[in-house]
């Protein structure tokens, strides 16, 4: 399947490309959009099966947040990137004179379009059908308009919608992202941002852990049967103070910040900030009915993850990342074939003996493997990735994401009828692997332990 990606150089766009390539999809970048014709030309040239709009403007110059959009003369940029570009994409991918059928499209919108009269009254999480009621910033005002207009294009998944509408045979999804959190620290990561603030206004909010939600949104778009707005957030809510306390607890870092009432924050900032909780019932329902094979293709979660659990895991990961480099303290293991007989025994032993170590198990779950061979009750640091190690991009991604310190390789097919015959493929590949690993040991001084039959 060919995906046309707009905003491919942004934080969300880069991660979309990475996940799509791991799933074996072809990705092409769209040109810079200045008019409807730019998108129409891209569609004619590339003939995409799916389109993604990850275009948006939230900062600029030396201002790292939406206060940038309050500056004089910036309205044109705000309208161009946050309103016109998404609408051009929606129009160009709609069934019409140039298209026999609409192209399923994913648009990354914003959930920062609501507020409560009492910010601590959470009796009504905002649903996809609720009209925007927060216009306290130039960013939110324009995104609110885009949200309403995009809803007129049923083929767009606004990763912000009404329930699935099966009478349409094309879908535009609008995904409402809120306060995005990434696995790794970065300038656009919400945790990284608030760690840099001295004054914190702590209020309940829905949030989006991108490693949970992004694969799910891409899987929904791949399926091509989901459209409209959807609140693209994890289940539940947290406040800023809870995150900072959890981070300090996991990392041992002493944080220096003070809590600031919202009325004082309003006086200090150029633009007001939206604080709200969003209903995730719709995304939860979509997650449940999305076919398992599509979830597996994109490594999407089986159920909608809880926000508190995901944030705790990320804080624990960062604690390992920033901890001492002495590998005798904590290790991050990538184990291949860990659901087989030998691999599962190794993992069970390791988790019990070293419960603070992180163990990532990648196994394609052949009939001879069973995920239930692993006793996960002894450690919270275990993660199973159901995939083949032939997926090089995925393996490299896992090694980078989890800062892997040790690799333990058990994956292999040994179910041969005559394994002692030296001419069979099993023996031949094992012999080749033996010489390859030995050469790495001699040439690059790679430390390795041989555990093989003869």
TrEMBL record:
PANTHER family: DTDP-D-GLUCOSE 4,6-DEHYDRATASE-RELATED. Transmembrane segments: none annotated. GO terms for molecular function: catalytic activity. Residues 334-415 form the NAD(P)-binding domain. InterPro entries: NAD(P)-bd_dom, NAD(P)-bd_dom_sf. This is NAD(P)-binding domain-containing protein. It comes from the Eukaryota. SUPFAM superfamilies: NAD(P)-binding Rossmann-fold domains (SSF51735).
